[in-house]
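Pipeline run #58 for the internal structure catalog. This entry was flagged by the ingest filter as a single-chain record with no existing model, so it goes straight to prediction. Upstream metadata was stripped on purpose; only the residue string is passed forward. Reviewer on rotation: M.T. Logging verbosity set to normal.
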Amino acid sequence: MRRKTFWDIWGNSKEEEEVVRRAAQLKPFTSELKMLLGNGALRAQLENSKMVSLLPPVGTSVFRHFTPGSLKEIQRCREVQEKERQKREDKNISQVTVAQENPAGGLESGKPLPFIFGDPSPEFVNTPLEDLDPFYQSQKVFIVLDGQKVIHRFNADPACYMLTAYNHVRTSAIKILLHSFFRAFILLTILTNCVFMTVQEPLEWTRIVKFAIIAIYAIEVLVKVAARGFCVGRFTFLRDPWNWLDLVIISTAYLAEIVNLGGLSRFLQVLPALKLIPAIPSVKKTLGALTRVVRKMNHVIALSLGCLIVLAALELHNFMSYLLNKCVLIQSSNDSYVDHINDGANYYYLPGHTEAQLCGNRSSAGTCPDGFMCLNVGTNPNYGYTNFDSFGWAFLALLRLMTQDFWEDLFRLILHSGGKIYTINFLADILLASFSLGSLIVAVIAVAFVEQKQAETTEAEQRSKDYAEIVETLKKEEKVDGSGGLDEKPSSGVDTPKTPPVAIFGFFSNFAVLSERKDEQRPCSPCCSAFTAIFIKWTCCDGCRPKQLLHRVVSDPFFDLFVVMCLLLNITFMAMEHFPMTYQFADMLFISVPVFAVIFAVEVGLRFLATGPYFFFQVGWNIFDLVIAVITLLELHLVFISELSFTRLFCVMRVFRLARWWPNFNALLKLIRSSLGVLRRFTLLLLIIIFIFAAMGFRIFGRNYEENVCRISEDCSLPRYHMADFIHAFLLTFRVLCGEWIETMWDCMQVAGEPACLIFYATMVVVTKLALLNLFLALLIKSPNGDHQTASEVEAQKNLQEALNRIRRAVMGVKSQVLGHPSKKTGWKANLNPPGLKSDEPDQKEFLALTFVNTEEPESEVKTCDEAFKSASANGDADEENNHGDSAAGLRKPDDRDTPAQCFCDQCYRCCPVLNMDSCPAGLKTWSNWRRMCVSVVDHKYFEAFVTFVIFLSSCALAVEDIYLEKRVVLRSVLEYADYVFTCIFVLEMLLKWFAGGFKKYFTDAWCWLDFLVVLISLLSTFATLLGIPQLKAFTSLRTLRPLRLLSRFGGTKVVATTLFGVFPAILDVLLACLTLWLIFSIMGVNLFAGRFYSCVNSTWIMQDVNNKTECFMLMESNYSEVRWHNPQVNFDNVGMGFLSLLHVATVKGWLDLMASAMDSKEVESQPEYEANMFTSLYFVFFIILGSFFTFNFLISTIIEHLKWQKAKLGATGIFMTQDQMTLYDSLKAFSQKKTQRSVPRPQNKIQGLLFDLVTKDFFDIAFTVVACIQVLVLMVGTRDESMEKIKIIFWIDFAIIVIFTAECVLKLIALRRHYFAFGWNIFDFVLVVLFILGLFLEDVLNKYFILTHPFFSVIRLARTFRVLHLFRFAKGVRRLLYVLMRSLPALFNIGLFLFLIMFTFCVFGMQHFAYVKKRALMDDVFNFETFGNAFICMFTMTTLAGWDGLLLPIISEPPDCDPYLGNCGRPVVGILFLTSYVIMSFLVVVNMYIVVILEKFNMAAEESIDELCEMFYDTWERFDPHASGLIHSSQLSDFCDSLKEPLRIAKPNGIKVSNMDLPLVPEDKIHYLDLLLALTAQVQGMSGERDKLKASMEEKFKARHQAINKREDDAAIVIQRAYRKHAAQSPVQTGAQNGDVEA
C-alpha cells in the first residue's frame, strides 16, 4: 500500500479518527449472528471475508467450554497436520501458503473480542474456552474472556505440572486474576506504595505497611503462576517481561531484609512504581507504541551519534585547555610561583560571579584588567565539568549544544578564551548538531507515529469494509427470500430458527446508525419524564406576552452585542489593575466588580426566564455562565472574609466566555479539552514517567544531597533545585522536561559522583524528550480546525455579526444623508470558513465574528518594486489587473512595450483633470518621450543591479557605525558624505520609477511602499542632520531599515518573505486567541504576585534580617547607601509586564528566577522568605502546559494549515523555493536515486588486472573504512595532560594511516586508470589524501612563519574525519537521512538568507540604540551592541531563543541600576519591542525550517517503498548490462529474474511466469529496464489497480536517466545525418563522372 504524504495525514486526521471510532462501535445483533452460523449458503457467499472466516463451521456454536474432549481434538488436529507435512516432504513439494499462516490480528491476546462473535453469555465469561483463532486450534492453548470481553490466552498444559486447565484451583486463580476488583485492588496497592515512596522520613508503622504491600505483590505473583504456569509454554508467567519486574521486586525486597545492599536498595525501592505501566492497559499500549517508534529510530540514532562523535573529536583538538585561561594577579611577593598561580584568591572575578574571568591570547579574545596576566592554570568552570580536555567531556558539551541547554554560557566561555573567530565553529555545530539532527529526529518520529496511525486506520477501514460486505449480502438474501427468513438448515442437523425480516433490516440499520449518528440522547424513564414535564419544562406560560417579550430580547442580535461589549469592558477593567495604584483608581476598580457581577447575573436570569430550565441547561455555555455568576454574587457577600478573596480569580474565567462568539479562541479551548480527553494516554504516561524519575532521584540521590551539600554551596544550604525531598525532585524533573538539565547534573555529579548521575540524567533526558515529542506530534496531527461548532455557538456568532451589520448599515445611511448622495451597496461579504476552519452548515456565507477577514480570491504574486515596473511596461493593464485587481482603463495596449502606464488612478483624473498631461497636445510629445526614457532606464538589467549594489554599500556603511566611530574622524566624514550620496541615489531611483510606472503602479506594490518608506526616512534623517532639528533626529535610527530592501532583490528571500507575510495575517487571529489565554494567566499573575517581588537588598544579595519595607527604609535612612528596596525588572506588577514575564516562561528562558521570586513571595511590602509559598510553582507548571505547550501546537497547526492551502493553490513542490531552485531540487532528487552505471573494463595487463580485481572487491572498501574509523578513534584518545610517548605514538599512527590512504589512492589509480576520476567517491578520497599530506608536512612551516594557522589545521582535522562518510555507502538508512537534508538545502538556504538579513537589520538597530548600556547579566565585553561583530553574536545566540532574558535586563535598565549621567541606561519600551519582536520572528523562521525538513522526510518516506525495490533492481541490472544501455536480451530474462532478491525474485523454473508478464520488446528482441521493473513491482506487490500511478511515478523518478539515453540517441542521429549529407553532396559529381565514362 502506498505510504501517505504529510498533507494526506494532515488533511484526513479527523476522518481517520472517525473511521477508527465507528469501526470500534460495530456490533451485530444476536439473530444475525445465528443466521451467519447456521446458513451455509450465506457463509459460502462470504468465504472471502476475513471476519466470517474466523467463525466456526456451520452448525456449531461460537463459544465452547474447554474440556478434556477439547484436548483430544487438539491432539487429533496436530496428528493430521504432521501427516500432511510428512506427505509433502516425501513428494518433495515446497511449503504452500495457507490462509492462516499467522495468528489472526483481531484475536490476539489483550485485544477485545471482535464484534462478529457477538456478546457472549455470562456462562462463557471468566471460564476456559476453546480458542477461536484457527491458528491455535492445533496447539494446546485456550482463551478466557474477562468482564470487558478482552481475550486472554493460556497454555492448556498443567500449570507447574500440577494444575490442569479444568482444575478448580486453576480456574479460580484465573477468575481472580481477570476480575476487575482484583486489578483495582492491585492498582490501589501500587498507588499506595508510590505515596510512601515520596515520604522522606518513614515512621515506624510504615514498615508494617511496606511488608503488607510486598505480601500483596507476592500473592499477585502466586495467582499469576497458578493461572498461567511458571515458565514452560508460550503464555506462562515468565514469558511476559512485565512479570519479571514483579519477580525482581519481591526477591530483592526479601533479600534486602537479609543482606545489606547499600545504595542498590534505594534504587530497588523505586521499581514498584514501574508497575503502574502494566496496571493501566492504555498506558501499557502507549508505551508499546513508543517502543515501536524507538525501533524505527536506529538510523537517525546512528547518524546522530556519528555526527556528535566527529564534532566532539574535532572540538577536542580545537578547544583543548582553552577554558583554563584565567586572569591571574601579577606576583609581587617572594611566595612560591606555583602556589601563587594555583591560588583561587589571586584570580580576577567579575562582581556577582563565582567563576574566575576567562581570557585569551588572541586579539579578539577576552582581556585582563591592569595588574593581571592571562595564564593557563587552575580548574575548568562549573566544578571542572565544562571543558574539552578529553573526548568524554567534549562529547557532553556537544550534547549540550544539541539540546540547546544553557549553550550561550559555553559559547561565551569559548569566545572569551579563544576569540570571536570560533563563532564559525559554534554556528556550524548549532546548524548541524542541533537544527539538522534535531529536525531529522522529529521527522523520523513523525513518520513512525504516522505509520502507526495509518496502520490503525487501515485495520479499521478493513473491518468496516468487511462489515459492509456482510450487510450487503444479508440485504441480497432478504430480497431473495421474501418471506422474511431463511428456511435453510445446517448440514449437521442442528435446527436454526428463522430470522424475521425486521432482524435483517435491523442489522443494516444498526450499521447505518453507528455510521451516521453523532449526538444521541439517552431515553428517560417514565418517572424522569413526568418530573421533567412538571418541574423542568415550563410550558404553562409559553403563549404569555412577557415570556415572548423576554425571548425576543434575549434572541435579539443587539443583546449578544451588549453582552460582548460588557465582557470586553470587564476584561479591560481587570487588565487595568496594577501596582502601585492610587486610592481613587483602586476604588473605581472595586466598584466595577459588583456592577459587572450584577450585569452578568441579570443576563443569566433573563436567559433562564426566556428559555426555561429545560432548554437553558441544554446549552453548555449557559451552565458555565450560571456558575460564574453564582460565584461572583457569592463573593459580594463574603468580601469581608479575607480567606475567601480567591473567589475573585473566578471573575477572570469570564474571559472564556468570548469563545462563544470567537471561533479561533473556541478552537483553542477545544484543542485543550479534547487533548486532555482523547490523548489522556500520552499525558498519563508522561506524568508516570515524571513521577518515576522524581521518585528515583529522591531515593537514589536524596541522601547524597544532604550529606555533601557543602560541595555545591558555600553556606552549606541546599540549592533551589535538588533531590533531597520529593517535591524538589519533582520540580527538578519538570525542569529537565522543559529542556534544562545540565546545571542540575553538575550539582548531582558533585554530590553523588559522575557515573551514576550521567546514567540517570542521560536516561531521564532521552525518555522524557521522546515522550514529549510523541505527545507533541499527537497533538499536531490532531488539528483542532476540523472540530464542529455547536448550534448555540453558530447562532451566537450569527447574532453578533448581524448586530455589527446593522450598525454598519446605519452608519452608511447617516453618511449618505450627510454627503447628500444615496448609499451604494457595498457587497460586503465575508467568508465563514477561512482556511483552516470548517463549519457544520455548508451554505453559511457570513464571516464569523471577531475573526480576521481572509479573502477567497487567490493571492497575487508578490513582486519586487523593479519587477512591478517591468511588468507594467511589458504587460500593461492585463498584468495590472492580475497582480493588483485595479482597473487600468486608458493604459496602453499590452503589445506596446514603449508606452508607459498612466501616472494616476482614474478617480484622480476625474477629480483633477489638469493631472492628465497627455490631453495637452503641446506637452504630449515631450512628456511621452521623457517617460519612455525613464521606462527604458528602469527596465535596464544594470539598473536593478546598480541599485542592489548601492543598497548593499549603504547597509555595510550602517554596520561600520559603532562606538569607535567618534574616534575615527576620517571614516566618520566619509560615511556622512556617503550617506548623502546614498540618499540622492535612492531619491533618484524613486523619481525614475514614479515617471516610468506612475504613482498608481508604484503605490499599489508592497515592496515599493517599503522603498518609499526607506527613502522618506533617509530624507528626514538628512534634513535633521543638515538643519540641526532635534525633533527629526529620531528618524536617523530608522535608517536601519535599509537592509530590508535586499529582501526583494533576491528571489529566495522574496519567496520566504512572501510566505511568512502571507501566513502572518492567517495566524494573527489565532495569535490573538493565544494571547487571550495568556491574558487570563497574566491577570491571575497580577492578582497573585503584584507588589510581592520586592525585597530589601544590599548590592546584589537579599538581606535576611529585614522583615518588611518599613525596616528596609529605616536602614536606608541610617546611611546604608548600598541598601535599597528593590523590585526585579521582570515582574507581575501590571498586565503588560505580566505578558513579558509569561514570554520568559513560555520560552523557558529566565523562568527559574521568576518562579523563585514567586515561591519566596509573602504579602505586599513584606521581605521575601526562602520558599515561603512553595505551591505557587504550580502556576508556572500549569502555564507551561496550557499557555505554552498547547498554544505552541495551535500556532504550528495554523502555519501548516496555511502552507497546505498555499500549496494547493500554487501546486508547487517546494513552498520556499524559486523556479530555478525547483530545478536544482529535481537534480538533487535525481542524485539521491541510484542509477545504472557503466562498468569499468578490466585492464589487459596482468598486474593491473590483479590490482583491478583487488580494488573492486567489497572487502577492500570495507577495510579502508575500518582504517578511517581507527583514525577517528585516534583523534578521540587525545587529552590535555598526555605524555610525550603518547604524542609520538599518535603521530606515527597518523603517519601510518596517511601512508595507507595514499597507497589506496595509488593502487586505484593504477588499476582504474583514467576511470578513477569518473567516480565521485574516488575524487573525494583523492582530495582528502592531498589535504592529509599538506597537513603533515606543512604544519611546522605554517606555525613558524604564519599566524592564525589554528583554523587551517582545524579544517585539516575535519577533513580527516570525512573518510568516515564511506560508512554511509553501506548504511542505506543513514544515507537516506542525509539525502533528506540534501534535498532540503534550497529551501533551507532561502530561509537562512532571510534570517541573516533580519539578523543584520536587528544588529544595526541594536548598535544605534543599545551600544552604551551598562554591562550586566549576560552583556559583557563580548556579548554587547558596541560593534557589529558583537551584535551579530548576540543575535545569533537569540536565534535559538537562548540568552535573550540576559540581554533584556541591561537594555531595559533604569536608575538606580544605571547612571543616566553616564548615558548607560537602557530604553525599556524600545528594548522590549526590539527583543520580543526578534524572538517571535526567529521563532516563526526556525519553525518553518523544521517544517521544511519534516515535509521532505514525509515526501521521501512516501517514495521509500519504491526506492528499496529500485535500488535492489539496479544492483542486479548492472551485472547484466555492463555498458548501461538500459536494455538486455530476452534470453537473459530468466536468469535475471532468478538473480533478483526478494520480493522481486522469481525463482527458476520461471518460464511460464516470465511469459505471463507480457513484456514489450524493442528491436533485436531486447527488453527495457523500466518495463521490466514496472511488471515485477506490479506483480509482486499486487498493484495492478495502481499501475498507471506507479508508472507515472517511475517515469518521473527516472527522468534524468531517460534524458541521458535520449541524448545518446540524438548524438547518434546527428552523426548519421552528417554522414548522409556528405554522401549526398558527393553523389552528383560521382554520377556525372559515371555518365561521362559511359558516353565515352
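catalog note: Residues 423-480 form the longest helix (58 residues).
catalog note: The chain has 58 helices and ten strands.
status: ready for reviewer M.T.
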